[in-house]
UniProtKB/TrEMBL annotation:
Gene Ontology terms, MF aspect: phosphatase activity
PANTHER family documented for this protein: STAGE II SPORULATION PROTEIN E, STAGE II SPORULATION PROTEIN E-RELATED
Keyword Mitochondrion recorded: no
SUPFAM superfamilies membership: PP2C-like
InterPro entries: Bact_Sigma-Reg, PPM-type-like_dom_sf, PPM-type_phosphatase-like_dom
Protein's name according to its UniProt entry: Phosphatase
Domain PPM-type phosphatase: 178-394
Keyword set, alphabetical order: Hydrolase
Domain of life: Bacteria
């Protein structure tokens, strides 16, 4: 493991914008790699893009029809032997071994590290070390993003609207994993999202999850959602309970807009030890559950006022319980209100079918798959609203 430690030291000592070059140099020196490329997943999670080519990217690699995409989707190393091509220029010549490694940080999928080795230097031990190096590279990228735009730029196949820029910067990530749960979320349209958002925070004993939908479009919706999310975070970080978090955010929004704008929100706090959940349903986001193969919408929640609609609204927490093996799906009205070209709404039946058809996918892939089916229902019709899907698999504690 000495060479793994040596590569790690090189990555930690590299300038934020030079991580790809540092990885390439270190892997060439210690693993005799002949080619190294860092690919980042775009905001829509459909494309992998080489980082060093930015801001003018070279060939884009599809996630769902490529060798690097297999590693990204399965979150497992994928090894090509014999110099197979078709991976965006990564073929290493006759006999070369191309290893595609997921770059993931605590469940949040960033991209893929592709490394080409001569066949005589490839071994199971080398593969194990490279898996750890890809994970270490992911951690360094997360830290480096504080100081450079390089990796944020690499996620874009087109320019984001200003509203989308504001919304994406609010997100905690696109997926998260702990032994008690796996969590994934996605927004669409990825490059022009308006007021939809999701947020989560975990501690030793609890997971807090919120799904919000600010009214309006464009910058006005993004500003409204930014105010709401930061108010909720401010209250949560002050140690307030879920009801007080909702009250503080309600006061913040009403104080700014005087009832002219409001935010629909769903707030949940999970006890990691017991699966007991406290819920506040303050608007339109809906909850579906897949338990033992049966899909059902959670309908027993009391509908409370959206945040900011009236002055000094009071909010009440309701109890809810999740069991090991449960899958929860949270969707905004941009999902279930979508109309087909013939005017048919995306019905509850279709949403239940989508949840069933994606039951074998990990939570990080479910939101994108559901939104893909939604796009098929919509056809060529332009989306009238943005849409949010968040998926949670509950494992609980032994």
């Amino acid at each position: 493991m000495d060479r793994y430690a040596a590569v790690g030291r090189t990555l930690r000592g590299a300038a934020p914008h030079e991580l790809p070059q540092a990885a390439r140099k270190a892997l060439t020196e210690h693993f005799t790699a002949t080619q190294v490329e860092l690919l980042m997943a775009d905001y829509a999670m459909t494309i992998l893009q080489p980082v060093p080519a930015l801001p003018y990217t070279t060939e884009r690699i599809p996630v769902h029809a490529s060798a690097p995409g297999r590693a990204f989707g399965a979150q497992e190393p994928y090894v090509e032997s014999g110099g197979a091509g078709g991976t965006g220029g990564l073929g290493g010549g006759s006999g070369a071994v191309v290893i595609h490694l997921p770059v993931t940080v605590r469940g949040d999928r960033l991209g893929v590290l592709s490394v080409t080795l001569p066949p005589e230097t490839y071994s199971p031990q080398a593969l194990r070390e490279l898996v750890l190096i890809a994970e270490a590279l992911g951690h360094e990228i997360v830290v480096a993003e504080r100081d450079t735009d390089l990796y944020v730029q690499a996620r874009r196949v087109e320019r984001l609207t200003l509203a989308a820029e504001m919304q994406w910067q609010l997100l905690p990530g696109r997926s998260c994993s702990r032994r008690e749960y796996d969590l994934g979320g996605h927004l669409e349209p990825a490059y022009a999202v308006f007021g939809d958002n999701f947020d989560w925070s975990t501690s030793a004993d609890h997971l807090t999850l919120t799904i919000s939908n600010g009214m309006g479009q464009g910058i006005s919706a993004a500003l409204l959602t930014n105010l709401t999310v930061h108010a909720l975070r401010n209250a949560r970080r002050a140690g307030l309970g879920l009801a007080d978090q909702a009250c503080l955010a309600d006061q913040a929004v009403y104080g700014q807009y005087r009832g002219a704008a409001h935010v629909s929100a769903l707030l949940l706090r999970f006890d990691l030890a017991t699966g007991a959940v406290r819920v506040i349903d303050a608007g339109s986001p809906k909850v579906w559950r897949l338990r033992s193969g049966k899909v059902e919408q959670i309908t027993g929640l009391e509908a409370q006022l959206p945040l900011g609609m009236f002055e000094d609204s009071l909010y009440t927490e309701q109890p809810f319980q999740v069991l090991p093996g449960d899958r929860l799906l949270f969707v905004s009205d941009g999902v279930y209100d979508v109309a087909s070209p013939a005017g048919e709404r995306y019905s509850e039946r279709e949403l239940a079918r989508a949840l069933t058809s994606t039951r074998l996918l990990p939570p990080a892939e479910v939101p994108r798959a559901v939104l893909g089916e939604l796009a098929g229902h919509r056809g060529e019709t332009r989306a009238e609203d943005d849409a949010t899907v968040v998926c949670l698999d509950w494992h609980g504690r032994p």
